[in-house]
Amino acid sequence: MDHLILYLFPLLSLVLIVLKMIDKKRNQCCYILDYQCYKPTDDRKLSTEFSGDIIKRNKNLGLSEYRFLLKAIVGSGIGEETYAPRMVFDGREANPTYEDGITEMDEFFQDSIQKLFAKTGVSAKDIDVLVVNVATMTTSPCLASRIINHYKMREDIKTYNISGMGCSASIISINIVESIFKCRKNVNALVVTSESLSPNWYSGNNKSMILTNCLFRSGGCAILLTNKASLRHRAMFKLKCLVRTHHGARDDSYASCTQMEDEEGRIGIYLGKNLPKAATRAFVDNLKVITPKILPIREILRYAVLVILRKLNTNSKKGPRPMINFKTGVDHFCLHTGGKAVIDAVGNSLGLNEHDLEPARMTLHRFGNTSASSIWYVLGYMEAKKRFKKGDRVFMISFGAGFKCNSCLWEVARDLDDGNCWKECDIDKYPPTSFVNPFMEQYGWVNDEDIDTFVLPE
Predict the structure, then answer these.
(1) Which of 221, 365, 405, 437 is catalytic?
(2) Sequence-ordered list of residues with C-beta below 8 angstroms from that of 435, at least 6 positions apart, any chain
(3) Is 257 a catalytic residue?
(4) pTM for the full model?
(5) 167 is catalytic
(6) Domains of the chain
(7) Which residue of the set 188, 214, 332, 334 is catalytic?
């Protein structure tokens, strides 16, 4: 009996250690319970005619700038149902106030967070962690405090208010939550992601800064996450892995996208000509890290063999380069809607077809580039189209100032078909049969004007 006890004691200790490790791992999982994308009211929609009026109100523009804007808008992939801040409709975009930015954020916060609580049955008092990311607006008290005050959240809530992270901030916010989940059990986290356009609507004539007015639109998303094992049966997605790449140490990457003043002191977002190159570098480096985490070994080996054979065979170097088939480990691709060129470039790099790119293209067309919240509108489109089945894997990719490329992989936890804000958009009409941009039809005449005699018609 003494010998039996002697052997059983270490065995039981080993079993307890294993059970403790399993329990710890089980409570470190990161689940999305639900999310709510913001759909502003219809009185904030930017039609072709009204967009033309906004451009004509800017007295700093000449024929060269009009032609540039026409080309940018026509090729942007953005439709006529995107949303702008209210101060634009009041004709005050040249002189926005601090209150304009606050109002823009309050409308989003009070709509989307309330809807998220109603959908999930989770109350404001149940939130343990709040992460807010709005890149170009910093207030005092911070926006996180503003949300806590409005919803009367608990005194012991942990808050993170991050700014300046650009369009890639929501995945950074998810990473913060994931790290907290590894240290604490039974936590509910609320991530709030948006952008305030009011303080950064550019009214000058610097072409590298005017471009942001053509691409960025109002929007936002509230995401409820948890690591509670008791709630995993209600979860929509489970986080599998996340990778962040930051090229801020490279001067050209750092300066490729930045908030600045022009020569006349007007604030705006500068998009440099080297931005595509900076994005490509960050994207490639990010893929190098995340690819082995999300693709099966057989695909990695297949690609490695093809690369080796191509190097050995000098004649093969004239042909197409070998490509990794990302569809061997990914079912859906959730791409940042940075612009039509960004979607095309990422699609070509990953070997995606039009079906794969459709969610990003339609999000750009319907909502524009809503900065860090864009990828959640893309996710909502795929849900509305009933593409998600239990066990599917969703690859999210986003880019941001700094320069950054962040990506993550989600696993669909159950069949999904709610549609989020897209269910209010008549999802069956997407994709539309025609993408003819009315700007060219209405304003194409500027290309035929003489710069010496040009006079803007009233």
Answers:
(1) 365
(2) 77, 365
(3) no
(4) 0.91
(5) yes
(6) 24-295+330-448 (3.40.47.10)
(7) 332
